[in-house]
Amino acid sequence: xxxxxxxxxxxxxxxxxxxxxxxxxxxxxxxxxxxxxxxxxxxxxxxxxxxxxxxxxxxxxxxxxxxxxxxxxxxxxxx
Length: 79
Known about the structure:
Elements: E1 2-7, E2 13-18, E3 29-31, H1 34-45, E4 48-51, H2 54-63, E5 71-73, H3 74-77
Parallel strand pairs: 1-4, 4-5
Antiparallel strand pairs: 1-2, 2-3
């Protein structure tokens, strides 16, 4: 399972389930508390998280006590 993540101002964000080929695998979900949403899904599914750049998303998650096991940083692989 893969989930794309986009953070928004104020601690919210968007989560988009992805198929193995990267295509959307369902509707995107807007969340008001991104850290809580990531924490819940990490515990339940242990997905690979996909985000544009770790430095844009992960610091707020770490500050909230959320750690993820696997992620795919698009900025690193597209450089």
